[in-house]
Design a protein that fits this description.
129 residues, mainly alpha, YHJQ-like, Four-helix bundle copper-binding protein, Csp_YhjQ
């Protein structure tokens, strides 16, 4: 199953989708899971990773909200979607900066996903005009 196929199957989509928005939704979902996993891995590290854990958890929540809103096809709410995409991109930038401070493979992977998600959100944002 793909998010693109799910969005395209909506009766109002009539088989057409906003590709950058679909990509942003997909990567926001991935990013939420990766941030959650990174926060969990940080909790097992021997040093204090409190700030990284908090940042990853907050980013995961924001990514989840953005992904959910980006997949909705009924009605129009570009203003809300813009706010969420900006918040998601900004949260991902903040999380990437925090994770890049740590020399852990899970933090490196999380930062990488956050950078990709932020970029995708900005590309989707550009389609909203």
């Amino acid at each position: 199953m793909s998010i693109r196929k799910m969005i395209a199957s909506h009766p109002l989509a009539k088989g057409h989708i906003n590709e950058p928005m679909a990509e942003a939704a997909k990567h926001a979902m991935y990013c939420a899971v990766i941030c959650t996993s990174c926060a969990d891995a940080c909790s097992a590290e021997p040093m204090d990773m409190t700030q990284c854990i908090r940042t990853c958890m907050d980013c995961a929540d924001i990514c989840t909200a953005a992904a959910r809103a980006a997949t909705r096809q009924t009605g129009e709410n570009a203003a809300m979607l813009k706010v969420l995409l900006i918040a998601c991109a900004d949260a991902c930038d903040i999380c990437a900066i925090e994770c890049e401070k740590h020399d852990h493979d899970h933090c490196r992977r999380c930062a990488e996903m956050c950078r990709e998600c932020a970029n995708d959100c900005r590309e989707a944002l550009a389609t909203l005009g």
